[in-house]
Design brief:
By secondary structure, the protein is of the alpha/beta class. It has three domains: 358 residues, TIM Barrel (Alpha-Beta Barrel), CATH 3.20.20.70; 134 residues, 3-Layer(aba) Sandwich (Rossmann fold); 113 residues, FAD/NAD(P)-binding domain, CATH 3.50.50.60. α6 links the parallel β9 and β10. α3 packs parallel to α5, α12 packs parallel to α14 and α12 runs parallel beside α20. Bound molecules: flavin-adenine dinucleotide, flavin mononucleotide and iron/sulfur cluster.
């Protein structure tokens, strides 16, 4: 397998072709920004899992320009450097290499809560500030020539310190519209000094930074340069310039190119949601391979082993970088190596447990793997004496409860009312753009088969059954059901719920009105439109509030683009009130109007299936988790189950 071949970046040999992509982890830092036990344990788990080269989060080369950097890891601090040395030693003990990502800073995309009052964000030029583009008070301050020179020199000092601490290489954070990219890009760089004016001059800052690294850390210290070939943004970088830059970087002496795309305005490229195809950036990397003799690293939804292998086998890249796939499963490489790919915990592309935990200042983690980022504080403690655990409900929450119970040593029985495990993941996984959920169902079924769990299908538990069974602990994970449509239909095949449609029922006719503009309505609308239906969405709210229940803005924005691409019509402020033979009657601002539609598909709210919870009330050994407490997301069900079963009998 090409994935498992050794590879070279500069003079550094890497035992396989898997690079862990940089991912912010400030929620794992010590209060002074240092990398303590928690952060080291997080990386150690990935090194133990077989990764060849681990990239850290972006580390500031200078704390002078962006005040919030002072609370982060500081390469100039000897105390922090000692932690970097420990990290290098730990990774090396697993024959894993360490790459420190170095950043010039955020510039015009710096998060606004971190900007002190009266201080302007900085950038290569006076630019609109990403978060408040129309507010002139937030227009960025152009970094002076002297400040730019100092920042370039800081790359040299930082790289020298990293090398001193045992790092094997550095990666320059030149992508996604951050400060280094702002210098490289005409849209954000309109300077008149030597750092701007032409595309050649816009690379001066990068060139001087690279020269400083080569001067301070040595010409044999490998530099990986990460940048976007195109921003997919009007006025931003086009592919032609991106490929030209590859040649320039090679001349500057970098050792490898890490090929990305997009920027904050088109964030669904560098942060591809669940809707993005696997290996969504591989073809761009392939274009760079054609113009460069440097090793090329590709990234973006490459946690599918076959897709990652194909990218290498087709010569489109030399290394694959995996980010979130190593959060959901730190053992990814070992499982590939030992042919256990079916045991890999898939990444769902949801961004909920990783990016959003990070944004709120919590350890970067994973919806499906609550131990990620919590390697030191969420271990499972084995039981001291034998106990029985009954889990009612075989959705993701129930299965996680069973897993944690079995791993702790409980004698676990799981009852599921239907004839299959997976719960609401089944309708959720129906659209092909939700294939990650189908992978998750397969993973969960395999997991349950491997665990010592007694699974009983077609067993709809009653309160009496549970009492009779007499387990020491009971987990109720009975999920949620969609509320019924608010009116009846004269023809049952013309009024369906999204659950019925996603369970395989076909709405009659061509013209379909989907009632409900939340995620479920929007996804089902796209699913139907891609099957050739003429789809309209009616939503109670405004058109710009469509899919507003999406947790992550990248995921939401990509879904909105899919709605646009599928030419789905959206009727805001519209509430259907009844079905008639030739259409649907709806109220718009209190006035009834007829909408031409053959069928109506209802995307309503979910109501918890909590009859068993109600029957038992609050008892010390019976716990409810997941959607039967409050309908939510997979992460709520998995994390809820993990917490309860981890904490009982400690
Ligand atoms: C169409 C759709 C799309 C979705 N897409 C996403 C998404 O992309 N990302 C995301 O995070 N979330 C998504 N969700 C939400 C997600 O599926 C749920 O949050 C999750 O499935 C909740 O898990 P759970 O285990 O609590 O309940 P469920 O998955 O509902 O499982 C409950 C199980 O309990 C069983 N049961 C009920 N009563 C009994 C009983 N008395 N005895 C025995 N068994 C019983 C049921 O048969 C069912 O199998 C989606 C939901 C739907 C419907
Ligand atoms: C929580 C999180 C933090 C990230 N932080 C960084 C970062 O500090 N530097 C960087 O270059 N990319 C960062 N990224 C982007 C990843 O390196 C990677 O490009 C992206 O997640 C897509 O790859 P994947 O599909 O394998 O996850 C981050 C991504 C996530 C999910
Ligand atoms: S939280 Fe979601 S996107 Fe992030 S690693 Fe886990 S499954 Fe993937």
């Amino acid at each position: 397998m090409k994935l498992l071949d050794t590879g070279l970046i500069g003079n550094v040999e890497i035992k396989n072709r898997i690079v862990m992509a940089a991912m912010g982890g400030h929620g794992m830092h010590e209060p002074d920004g240092d990398w303590g036990e928690r952060y080291l344990a997080y990386f150690e788990a990935r090194a133990r899992g077989g990764v060849g080269l681990i990239t850290t989060e972006a580390t500031f080369v200078s704390q002078a320009l962006e005040p919030f950097a002072k609370s982060l890891f500081n390469v100039a601090s000897d105390k922090h450097l000692a932690s970097m040395r420990r990290l290098a030693d730990i990774l090396h003990s697993y024959d894993c290499r360490l790459s420190i990502q170095l950043t010039a800073g955020f510039g015009r995309v710096v998060p606004f809560p971190t900007v002190p009052e009266g201080v302007k964000p900085v950038s290569a030029s006076e630019n609109s500030y990403f978060y408040f583009p129309d507010d002139p008070a937030w227009t960025t301050r152009e970094i002076t020539t002297e400040e730019t020179e100092a920042l370039a020199r800081a790359f040299g000092y930082a790289a020298m310190r990293c090398r001193e601490a045992g790092a094997d290489c550095v990666e320059l954070h030149g992508h996604e519209g951050y400060l280094l990219d702002q210098f490289m890009t005409g849209l954000w760089n309109s300077r008149n000094d030597r750092y701007g004016g032409s595309r050649e001059k816009r690379l001066t800052f990068a060139r001087e930074s690279i020269e400083a690294i080569r001067r301070e850390a040595g010409t044999d210290f490998p530099i990986i340069y990460r940048y976007g070939i195109t921003h997919y943004l009007e006025g931003g970088r086009e592919e032609e310039e991106g490929l030209w830059i590859a040649g320039e970087l090679e001349k500057m002496g970098v050792s490898a190119l890490h090929v990305d795309a997009g920027c904050y305005e088109t964030h669904w490229w560098p942060h591809p949601p669940q809707y993005a195809p696997p290996g969504c950036l591989v073809d761009l990397a392939g274009k760079v391979k054609k113009v460069s003799s440097l090793p090329v690293i590709t990234v973006g939804r490459l946690h599918y082993p076959d897709v990652a292998e194909k990218a290498l086998a087709e010569g489109k890249a030399d290394f694959v970088a995996i980010g979130r796939g190593l959060l959901s499963d730190p053992e990814w490489v070992n499982k590939v190596q030992s042919g256990r790919t079916a045991e890999i915990i898939p990444c769902l592309g949801c961004h909920e447990g990783c990016k959003w935990q990070m944004i709120v200042g919590e350890p970067t983690s994973c919806s499906l793997n609550p131990t990620t980022g919590h390697e030191t504080d969420r271990q499972l403690i084995p039981l001291k004496q034998k106990r029985t655990l009954l889990v009612v409900g075989g959705g993701p929450g129930g299965i996680e409860a069973a897993r944690v119970g079995a791993e702790r040593g409980f004698d676990v029985t799981l009852w599921e009312a239907s004839d299959r495990l997976g719960g609401n993941l089944w309708p959720a996984a129906k659209p092909d753009f939700k294939h990650d959920l189908a992978d998750y169902i397969k993973y969960l079924n395999g997991l349950v088969r491997r665990l010592p769990v007694n699974v009983v299908l077609n067993k709809k538990a009653t309160a009496g059954d549970i009492q009779k069974f007499g387990a020491d602990y009971v987990i109720l994970a009975t999920g949620a059901n969609m509320e019924p449509p608010p009116f009846n239909s004269w023809a049952t095949d013309r009024l369906l719920t999204v659950i019925q449609v996603l369970s395989g029922m076909e709405p009659q006719g061509e013209r379909i009105l989907v009632m409900g503009g939340g995620i479920l309505g929007c996804e089902t609308a796209v699913y139907l439109a891609r099957r050739g239906k003429l789809v309209t969405i009616s939503t109670r709210g405004d058109a710009d509030a469509l899919a507003a229940d999406h947790f992550d803005h990248n995921n939401r924005e990509m879904l909105l683009l899919m709605i646009q691409a599928a030419t789905i019509n959206v009727l805001p402020g519209t509430v259907p009130v009844r079905l008639e033979k030739d259409g649907v009657v709806a109220k718009q601002q209190g006035v009834e109007t007829k909408i031409a539609a053959d069928s109506l598909v209802f995307a309503g709210r979910f109501m918890p299936e909590n009859s068993l919870s109600k029957a038992f009330g609050t008892r010390g050994n019976i716990f409810s988790i997941g959607d039967c407490v409050e309908p939510g997301r997979i992460m709520d069900a998995v994390w809820g189950a993990f917490k309860v079963v981890r904490e009982i009998e400690q």
